[in-house]
Amino acid sequence: MYRYDEFDHAFVNERVAQFRDQAARRLSGELTEEEFRPHRLMNGLYLQLHAYMLRVAIPYGTLSSRQMRKLAHIARRYDRGYGHFTTRQNIQYNWPALEDVPDILAELAEVEMHAIQTSGNCIRNVTADQFSGVAADEIEDPRIYAEIIRQWSSLHPEFSFLPRKFKIAVTGAAEDRAAVAFHDIGLRIVRDGNGEGDGEVGFEVIVGGGQGRTPMIGKTIRPFLPKEHLLSYLEAILRVYNLLGRRDNLFKARIKILVHEVGAAAFTGMVEEEWEQLKGGPVELPKGELERILAYFAPPAYERLPAVTPAFEAKKFEDRAFARWAEVNLFPHKQPGYAVVNLSLKPEGEPPGDATAAQMDAIADLADRYSLSEIRVTHEQNLVLPYVRQADLHALWQELVPLGLATANIGRVTDIIACPGLDYCSLANARSIPVAQQITRRFNDLTRIHDIDELKIKISGCINACGHHHVGHIGILGVDKKGEEFYQITLGGDATQTAAIGAIIGPAFSAAEVVDAVETLVNTYVDLREPGERFLDTYRRVGPAPFKEKLYATH
Amino acid sequence: MPQQVLTANRLSDGAVVFLDAEGRWSERIAAARVAEKADAQALTNAGEATAAEVVAPYLIDVTLEAEGPRPLRYRERIRAFGPSIHPEFAK
Amino acid sequence: MPLIKGGALSDDDWVSVGDDEPLPADRPVIVPLKRWQAERDALGGRNAAMGVRLESADKAEAIAADLGRLALVAIAFPTFRDGRGFSTARLLRERYGFKGELRAVGNVFRDQFLFMHRCGFDAYEVADAREAEAFAAALASFSVVYQRTGDGRVPATALRQLRRAAE
């Protein structure tokens, strides 16, 4: 993974010093809240319902064990002993004191971390496929480009006061695990010439996707962009957006609205016209720099192992519980004899995506012993150990179980994404975490969970959709109906390359009814499915009518 | 006629606080100074003396229970008493 | 309003006039864009320097062809959030080669000085003269930048290559 050089170290340390000064001026009263707020936000510090909330960046979801230990330490020393992993691969702390934040940022800087631009109307954390570098279907590691974009976007003097926040995602494989179609800019690594064999590697550029109040699927504005022009093209897009994005209405200020209002063709024309002036110019990344960063993402020194590990196969045979976990929580590794291990942060009854300081420390240890000291954070609020030898899987699993990190539910009905909701967030209309907890209790039987197979439930506590409900196979949106919490259900959302926005199925359900409603939907699917069909496939085949009928039968 | 209390977040640590009878900011809603809605301006004025300690004070509607003021809005109850999912952080 | 120029508080020779006010003779004046566009030829014959004020929605292209006749362009920042002026400034400096004074006016805070400077501004109208004290520190707050702009600073990405070449 990328390691800071003295330039990167100097940069984050200077940023810490700058914020220390800004915070001091606020605490002394020299700055009003209104004057301080933009600085607070550009350092990822929100003021929420109960307290401040600090969002720490985990660039493209990659962490070293040393960094994970520091995150654990911060949770213990400055917060209430836990952290929350988010839908943009970051971590959030819910209880830091403003007085402590400069020290927190200084501690983060020691391990090459920061909270720069995790909020505010600027370019946010660049996210990437959580299986980058280890997935067999990958053309190139998208994190190389995510790192290049991270540096280029850090305190960019022209783009720090955009109309609204700006989110970029990069994916490197045919299967899109980074939801690029739902980002302001999505970059898909492709081969030129229809992807046959040896074409030059570059990017498909997708612009104007997003969720929130007006969910939209991004439009491809350039099917192939040569690698060497990545930064000039991004600069062209951002400049067009900065100048023309709406500034009159906060809810209409994302780039998706601009693309929609002027039309994709006209928008593309403006970008291409600006790009003509920038292409090949001083903004481009020097070739040597691409090579330098590429080297950090070279494959690790794998052992030469056979593709099949008899000991692993035997253990699955002997240990049923282990077999069930292996069936669902592993992802195929491109290196023979290795596996990608998903750590579920969705145990029964717990807030999704939370980890205690003790768990974080334990994960750091496990990463050191089993995964070449590297961990990934997924946008579905789970963690990954990317370099585990198959021969070690059983031993690893045995250590995960008592830590509560071995729930065999990845991608299944109880692997729920939920935003913090009304329990934490000042924007929310309803609570989301309790709904997730109740669903995990209702579906707590592993046999049933596995029988239901892949089902992605996503819950948002308000229309800002931080829980990504629009792209849930089942989406749940919390609303306020006359002071009471109600939940609107959408069906058929899809965040992958077969992108789709979920459709509202009917009137909202009360807090008491919503879990029954989810169970009705699941049962309907089980009744109607054909062999090999997931929930989403059945829904696409039969449409909403059968689900609607069962859902509202007794209403 | 609803009663009101003045609430804010403390600047230094973000904690939810309520203006008490002594004009200080308390973490406990039970200690909050209560005013009739019609007299709520007095609350706002009283808060001004120590406004530098807090961020964005605002008035909320409450009912008076045995244990003290109870916010009418669910959102404000969560603020006053803590997140529903972490009873260990309850106040 | 206090003006920062050349790194410190400075006298301001310029007079800003609105759409209809008469222009003071022999003084450098700043006129709104619309007025410049309407009276361009007449204004060109003045004995003193001309400046144009762009609002945040005004485009650099609107005066690109006139830059040879302008000694100053002022770009407005009506609110802290409105960052259009940063792009407009870069285009004027880097695309259209403007060599005169590029002045940021409106809501200018010390924490924007470095960004503005990097985008090509060299004069700043501030609400409070004390902001001038912070100016030098603001410009020096980061020894490392990651982007190339017209300000001549070499970004880290390039410095690394220079260092590699030297090894």
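The beta strands of chain B are 3-10, 16-19, 25-26, 35-36, 54-65, 68-71.
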